[in-house]
């Protein structure tokens, strides 16, 4: 059980909740803050003070005053009209993360929701009822309005949900679970959708998958080093210490540890004086990507515990301020940075694949074929990797430098952060498949060299990987091998 406070959620806890199904609860202190914040909203309504989003319209309609009898209708109308998402739904794990992060933001006590609304979000998480949320339609500035509206619809008993492996109507699932819809009251609709939780949820899932993949890339690169007789001297600690980047130093150290005891790696001058950059510069390139991932992690850790709706309520309702914490620029830039960092893992991996399969670049059999000429071996696997790398270059174009005004120019600068996060996710999937191809090729290469000569750690890796993809003894449909290896990388537990 993870107790939520609104201030202390970690990426590790999000992994537990979203990937391992851990249950959640709201801390008593945080629920007290929710009660106080709600009392402030009800006082504002009773005193007929004019406050944005409580008794006014939204966006360009902020100057339209709403009658007291229409305040509740205003909130439901907001949710229904803003549920304009289109396209394929987000992965279910991302939907779960969105519910979690929205809950965590609301219980900080600055949003004015009722305790029953917070408790309904807890019920969705603990009952594994996850909103079906279309991926496209957010500008990432006035909050992730469209996707979060699809989340809020579920609280009101509308829309669709993922439930027990199926997509069902919320109404049917509520009936099965004995749940009642929430009747949204003053400010609650706005509080639910005015935030960055879509891009942040996608960003957290991205980071969790990307960091796993970054470690996996080192194991696969180490196996390639053995398959090509790479020169271990390039990973000597002195080289990396004199440059001074901690991430570069760490990558080199991990590679030395993984390759310890290998009889296939070489020393400079034994086979050649120095390796190509895709081998020699693994710590420098991977280390630079790790720098970016560390930056992204820092921003995500702030954002998952941030109050990002508008307006925010302070001092028991004495101070209600309209601001712009819903603007997704910090996460938009972080996701664009992540896109570049992850694309580089695939870029250098593809160059290592080329060295494994190109007979002009190594003494391995051409394309690692069991019968060169009659059988093509890994020839087209390299094509596939090259295609994915090229696609990543397009996806890595920054989304955060774009902006299109909305709401009649009231909202005249937007972040496009959710687009950045979605593209980062696509890049990560492509990187995993490129690394899967390198892994398949590296496994084949060390077999030609002699598996008995590889390092003890890579031997354990080799044995596990061979349970997933068999040796290439004859041409077959390698697409199936690539996908199976990618799935293994995605699900596997890896030493760090």
UniProtKB/TrEMBL annotation:
In its UniProt record, which GO terms are filed under biological process?
Answer: L-histidine catabolic process to glutamate and formamide; L-histidine catabolic process to glutamate and formate
Record-listed E.C. numbers? 4.3.1.3
Q: Which family does it belong to?
A: Belongs to the PAL/histidase family.
Name of the gene encoding the protein in the UniProt record:
hutH
Catalyzed reactions per annotation: L-histidine = trans-urocanate + NH4(+)
The 2,3-didehydroalanine (Ser) modification is found at 142
Task: Tell me which species this is from.
Answer: Peribacillus cavernae
Tell me where the cross-link 5-imidazolinone (Ala-Gly) is found.
141-143
HAMAP family, per the entry: His_ammonia_lyase
Q: Give the protein's recorded name.
A: Histidine ammonia-lyase
Q: Name one GO molecular function term.
A: histidine ammonia-lyase activity
Does the record's keyword annotation contain Lyase? Answer: yes
Q: Which UniProt keywords are present, listed alphabetically?
A: Cytoplasm, Histidine metabolism, Lyase
User: PANTHER family from the xrefs?
Assistant: HISTIDINE AMMONIA-LYASE
Q: Where in the cell is it found?
A: Cytoplasm
Entry-linked CDD domains: PAL-HAL
What pathway is this protein said to act in by its record? Answer: Amino-acid degradation; L-histidine degradation into L-glutamate; N-formimidoyl-L-glutamate from L-histidine: step 1/3
SUPFAM superfamilies in alphabetical order: L-aspartase-like
**GO CC annotations, alphabetized:** cytoplasm
Question: Mind telling me which InterPro entries this protein's record contains?
Answer: Aromatic_Lyase, Fumarase/histidase_N, HutH, L-Aspartase-like, Phe/His_NH3-lyase_AS
Top-level lineage group: Bacteria
What does the PTM comment of the record read? Answer: Contains an active site 4-methylidene-imidazol-5-one (MIO), which is formed autocatalytically by cyclization and dehydration of residues Ala-Ser-Gly.
Asked if the keyword Cytoplasm belongs to this entry, the reply reads yes
Q: Which Pfam families match?
A: Lyase_aromatic
């Amino acid at each position: 059980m993870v107790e939520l406070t609104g201030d202390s959620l970690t990426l590790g806890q999000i992994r537990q909740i979203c990937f391992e199904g851990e249950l959640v609860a709201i801390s008593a202190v945080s629920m007290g803050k929710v009660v106080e914040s709600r009392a402030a909203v009800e006082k504002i309504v009773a005193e007929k003070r004019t406050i944005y989003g409580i008794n006014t319209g939204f966006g360009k309609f902020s100057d339209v005053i709403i009658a007291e009898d229409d305040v509740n209708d205003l909130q439901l109308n907001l949710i229904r009209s803003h549920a304009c998402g289109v396209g394929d739904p987000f992965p279910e794990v991302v939907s779960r993360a969105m519910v979690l992060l929205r809950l965590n933001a609301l219980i900080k006590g600055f949003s004015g929701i009722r305790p029953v609304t917070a408790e309904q979000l807890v019920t969705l998480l603990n009952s594994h009822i996850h909103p079906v949320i279309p991926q496209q339609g957010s500008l990432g500035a006035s909050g992730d309005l469209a996707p979060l509206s699809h989340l809020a619809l579920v609280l009101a008993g509308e829309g669709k949900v993922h439930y027990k492996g199926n997509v069902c109507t919320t109404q049917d699932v509520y009936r099965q679970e004995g749940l009642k819809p929430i009747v949204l009251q003053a400010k609650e609709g706005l509080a639910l959708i005015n935030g960055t939780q879509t891009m942040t949820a996608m960003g957290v899932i991205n980071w969790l998958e990307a960091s796993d993949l970054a470690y996996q890339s080192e194991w696969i690169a180490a196996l390639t080093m053995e398959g090509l007789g790479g020169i271990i001297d390039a990973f000597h600690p002195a080289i990396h210490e004199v440059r001074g980047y901690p991430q570069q130093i760490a990558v080199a150290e991990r590679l030395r540890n993984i390759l310890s005891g290998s009889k296939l790696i070489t020393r400079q001058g034994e086979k050649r004086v120095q390796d190509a950059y895709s081998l020699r510069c693994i710590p420098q390139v991977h280390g630079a990507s790790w720098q970016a991932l560390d930056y992204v992690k820092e921003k995500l850790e702030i954002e998952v515990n941030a109050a990002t709706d508008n307006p925010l309520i302070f001092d028991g309702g004495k101070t209600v301020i309209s601001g712009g914490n819903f603007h997704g620029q910090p996460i938009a830039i972080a996701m664009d940075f992540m896109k570049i960092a992850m694309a580089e893992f695939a870029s250098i991996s593809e160059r290592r694949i080329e060295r494994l399969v190109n007979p002009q670049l190594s003494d391995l059999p051409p394309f690692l074929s069991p019968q060169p000429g009659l059988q093509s071996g890994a020839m087209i696997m390299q094509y596939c990797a090259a295609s994915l790398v090229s696609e990543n270059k397009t996806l890595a174009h920054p989304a955060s430098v774009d902006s299109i005004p909305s709401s009649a120019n009231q909202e005249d600068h937007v972040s496009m952060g959710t687009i950045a996060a979605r593209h980062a996710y696509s890049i990560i999937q492509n990187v995993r498949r490129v690394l899967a191809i390198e892994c398949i090729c590296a496994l084949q290469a060390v077999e030609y060299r002699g598996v008995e000569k590889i390092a003890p750690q890579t031997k354990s890796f080799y044995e596990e990987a061979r349970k997933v993809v068999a040796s290439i003894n004859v041409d077959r449909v390698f697409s199936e091998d690539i996908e199976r290896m990618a799935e293994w990388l995605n699900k596997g537990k890896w030493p760090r």
